[in-house]
Amino acid sequence: MQAGPKLWWVKARSDNAEMRRAPAPQMKFGVLQLPGSCDEIDALQAARRVGDAELIWHAERDLRGAEAIVVPGGFSYGDYLRAGAIARFSPAMESVIEFARDGGLVLGICNGFQVLCEAHLLPGALLPNANLRFTFRQVELDVVQPDTPFTRAGAGLARLSIPAKHSWGRYYADAPTLDELERRGQVVLRYAPGHNFNGSLRDIAGVTNEAGNVFGLMPHPEHAVDELTGGFTDGLTIFQSMRLAVEEGAHV
Amino acid sequence: MRARVLIRPKAGILDPQGAAVERALPALGFTGVANVHVGRLVELDVEDSSQLQSMCERLLANPLVEDYEIEIVN
C-alpha cells in the first residue's frame, strides 16, 4: 500500500497529463450557488474534470456564457415550505428556466432535481422518503436510456454506482404521467432491485423533460468522480456526456 | 384580513408522516385510530384575499401532490 500523500501526487500528475491532451477551447459549465447549496464545489470540481466551470450566484441573472448548467445539491433557502420551492424564484433560476426553454442542457442533482420539478422544468415531485429518514448510501442505478445527452458517454454502461444522500427523494407523478414518461423514454435511471430506499414510484431515480435537454436525479454523480474518494468514478459519465452533447451541438 | 390555508397530501399518495403517527398512537394505548394524515397550516394577513388562490398554486402548496383549502378567519 502506498501512503495517502503519494497517491495524491500520482493522481495530480495524471490529471495534468489529461489536461494537456484536452482540446484547447473547452465547453463551459455554470454551477448555480443558492443560499443553502452545499454540493456546488464538488459539482464545480466534477465539471472541471471534463471542461471549464464557474459558479453562478443565485442573485445574478447573467449565466456568464455557460453552455450547460448544473443545479447542485444542498438545502436551498433552507428548504423551507418544501424542498426547492423557494429557490425556483431566484433570479439565476429565472435565467436557467429561459436557458432550458431555449434548449440548453440543465442537470439538477438532488436538491437541484427538486428545484427543477418545482420550476416545472421536469415532471413530477419529490416527497419525503418513505422511511422518513435522511439516508446516505451507495446506490446502484440501472441505465434505462443509454443514449441521452446525460448518459451517452457511458458507452453502453448498464449500471452506475454512485452515492445518494437525502430525506426528500421519493419520486412521485400520477399514473398517467408515469406511463407517458416511460413511453417517451424520459425515465433515464432506475434504482436497481433492492436500492430504492426512498420509495420512488416505479424505482425512478432520474428523469428528463420531454425535449430531453433537462435532467434531474436524486443520487450524486459529482461525488463519484475520483478513485481517491469512495473509489467510484461512474458519476463522471454524466458530465462527460454533457460535454459531448454540447460539442456535438456546436458542430452540427 | 386573516386567512388560513390548510394544506394536506392528496388522497392516495403515500403519507409516511401520517403512517408514523398512526403507528405511534396505539403504542400509547390509544385504540381505534385510522386514516391519519399530517398536513400543514399557513396563517397569514392579506390585504387582497383574491390573491390567495394564486399564492397557493404558485408557492404555498404543490398542487401536483397537495390539496389546499382557503379559509378567511375575519
Detailed description of the structure:
The complex is a heterodimer of chains A (252) and B (74). By secondary structure, chain A is an alpha/beta fold. In chain A, 28% of the residues lie in helices and 23% in strands. In chain A, the strands form two sheets. In chain A, strands 2-1-3-4-11-10-9-6-7 form a nine-stranded mixed sheet, sandwiched between helices. A two-stranded antiparallel sheet of chain A has the order 5-8. In chain A, β3, α3 and β4 form a beta-alpha-beta unit. The N terminus of chain A is likely disordered. With 74 residues, chain B is α+β, with helices and mostly antiparallel strands. Chains A and B meet through loops of A and α1 of B.
Task: Please outline the helices and strands.
The complex is a heterodimer of chains A (252) and B (74).
Chain A: H1 4-21, E1 28-33, H2 40-48, E2 52-57, E3 68-71, H3 91-101, E4 105-109, H4 111-118, E5 125-127, E6 135-143, E7 159-166, E8 170-172, H5 175-183, E9 187-191, E10 204-208, E11 214-217, H6 236-251
Parallel strand pairs in A: 1-2, 1-3, 3-4, 4-11
Antiparallel strand pairs in A: 5-8, 6-7, 6-9, 9-10, 10-11
Chain B: E1 2-9, H1 16-27, E2 40-45, H2 52-60, E3 66-72
Antiparallel strand pairs in B: 1-2, 1-3
Note the main attributes of this structure:
heterodimer, A: 252 residues, alpha/beta, 9-stranded mixed sheet, two-stranded antiparallel ribbon, 11 strands, 28% helix, B: 74 residues, alpha+beta, 3-stranded antiparallel sheet, 2 helices
Main sheet record of chain A: 9 strands, mixed
What is the chain-wise order of helices and strands of chain B? EHEHE
The termini of chain B sit apart by 6 Å
Strand portion of chain A: 15-25%
Compact overview of the structure:
The complex is a heterodimer of chains A (252) and B (74). In chain A, 28% of the residues lie in helices and 23% in strands.
